[in-house]
């Protein structure tokens, strides 16, 4: 089994750590126990040049840091596009993840996208390009490419977002909707919430960190069985989405499930108005006609409320062969709770580093190690 975090950013995206470079990403992936990590931001020319300089081809469609050895974490070429456009009489703002097998493919797609907008100012570029047309352009340049809608419930920038999204996936991707087979749930929702909505039954649900710093790598992630490979990942997700017949089920890679942030901790889970410090459950917001009780402006309708709007089930569906969703609390937060101090304190950081030295990677401790083994390295 290996852990994959497929959505991160580089130092070239806004509001990200300047340490998000190939060498620190390799180090953080090892520290966390992540076997496969997305590069993020492949549309940015300087990042692409850095990746070409520092990465070497490994298995087909995957890369490693040059000189890092056979057991090094793998990288897959990924990027996120922010599409802002008008459709069906409404301004839409949708974030989409794109995966390509090679840096050459990333070059070719970026050349096409550069005809649409500026790729130099932000690792996650803002383009006036319809999501459907982005998908068409991507597949035209690279038929092996994959597009997965990002954090699909986020209010401001997402497929189903309350502020600028759609009620149906088909309204977004139109005649190309069949090419979408996986959705990223985002930090503020989990698979159970998504399975309240029957129109999502035919999609694999993935979770990623959307990390803007190395420390956030793996706060959400995916579990796969088998050896990492580009084709294997997406065959496994298509199988999980029930898109492959029995005789085409992948034998060398399976999607086992996700590691989940508790959605209640996501900043967009509930309704509210940040400027006024207002946070409300959906029923409370509805009682106020979705208006802020402090200033009288419209509330931001959060993920839980939006899921309830589109839900046509009272409880999550139990789908056949549904991958496992495993909720976890980040290890530094657990250590901080035990020690009675903040997770960012020096005391926690020292103890966290000692645990990694004594027991191994962060996510191995949380996901694979038995309690007795951990107790041997922690006083009663």
The number of helices is 13
Q: Largest sheet, described in full?
A: 9 strands, mixed
Taking Cα atoms only, what radius of gyration do you get, to the nearest Å? 21 Å
| Helix content, binned percent | 25-40%
Shape: globular
Quick one: how many beta strands?
15
Mean pLDDT: 96
Which residues form runs of ≥5 with pLDDT under 50? none
Order of helices and strands: EHEHEEEEHEHEHEHEEHEEEHHEHHHH
Measured between the Cα atoms of the first and last residue, the distance is 31 Å
Q: What percentage of the residues does DSSP assign to strands (E)?
A: 15-25%
What is the chains' assembly state? single chain
Secondary-structure class: alpha/beta
What does this structure look like?
This protein has helices at residues 22-32, 45-54, 103-113, 131-141, 169-173, 191-194, 230-240, 282-287, 303-310, 331-339, 346-359, 362-367, 371-375; strands spanning 2-5, 36-38, 55-57, 63-65, 74-87, 90-100, 126-127, 146-149, 182-184, 204-206, 221-226, 253-260, 271-273, 278-280, 324-327. The mean pLDDT is 96. By secondary structure, the chain is of the alpha/beta class. Strand 1 (2-5), helix 1 and strand 2 form a beta-alpha-beta unit. Strands 1, 2, 5, 6, 7, 8, 11, 12 and 15 form a nine-stranded mixed sheet that branches. The protein has 13 helices and 15 strands. The longest helix is centred in the last third of the chain and has 14 residues, at 346-359. It is globular. 46% of the residues are buried. Helix 2 runs antiparallel to helix 3 and helix 10 (331-339) packs across helix 11 (346-359).
């Amino acid at each position: 089994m290996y852990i994959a975090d497929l959505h991160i950013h580089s130092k070239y995206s806004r509001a990200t750590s300047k340490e998000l470079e190939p060498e620190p990403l390799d180090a953080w992936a090892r520290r966390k126990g992540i076997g496969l990590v997305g590069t993020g931001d492949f549309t940015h020319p300087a990042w692409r040049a850095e990746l070409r300089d520092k990465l070497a081809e490994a298995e087909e469609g995957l890369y490693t840091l040059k000189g890092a050895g056979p057991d090094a974490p793998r990288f897959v070429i990924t990027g996120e596009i922010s599409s802002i456009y008008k459709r069906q009489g409404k301004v839409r703002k949708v974030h989409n993840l794109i995966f390509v097998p090679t840096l050459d493919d990333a070059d070719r797609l970026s050349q096409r996208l550069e005809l649409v907008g500026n790729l130099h100012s932000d690792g996650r570029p803002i383009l006036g390009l319809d999501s459907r047309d982005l998908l068409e352009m991507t597949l035209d340049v690279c038929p092996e490419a994959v597009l997965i809608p990002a954090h699909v419930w986020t209010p401001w920038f997402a497929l189903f977002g309350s502020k600028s999204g759609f009620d149906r996936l088909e309204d977004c991707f139109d005649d190309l909707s069949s090419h979408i087979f996986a959705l990223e749930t985002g930090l503020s929702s989990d698979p159970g919430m998504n399975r309240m909505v029957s129109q999502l039954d035919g999609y694999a649900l993935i979770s990623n960190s959307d990390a803007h710093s190395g420390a956030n790598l793996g706060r959400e992630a995916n579990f796969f069985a088998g050896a990492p490979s580009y084709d294997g990942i997406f065959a496994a997700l298509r199988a999980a989405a029930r898109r492959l017949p029995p005789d085409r089920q992948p034998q060398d890679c399976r999607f086992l499930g996700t590691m989940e942030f508790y959605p209640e901790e996501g900043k967009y889970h509930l309704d509210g108005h940040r400027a006024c410090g207002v946070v409300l459950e959906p029923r409370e917001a509805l009682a106020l006609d979705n208006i802020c009780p402090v200033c009288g402006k419209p509330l931001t309708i959060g993920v839980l409320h939006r899921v309830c709007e589109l839900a046509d089930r009272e409880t999550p569906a139990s789908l056949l062969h549904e991958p496992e969703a495993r909720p976890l609390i980040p290890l530094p937060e657990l250590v901080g709770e035990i020690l009675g101090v903040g997770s960012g304190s020096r005391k926690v950081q020292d103890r966290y580093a000692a645990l990694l030295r004594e027991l191994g990677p962060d996510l191995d401790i949380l996901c694979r190690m038995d309690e007795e083994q951990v107790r041997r390295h922690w006083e009663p």
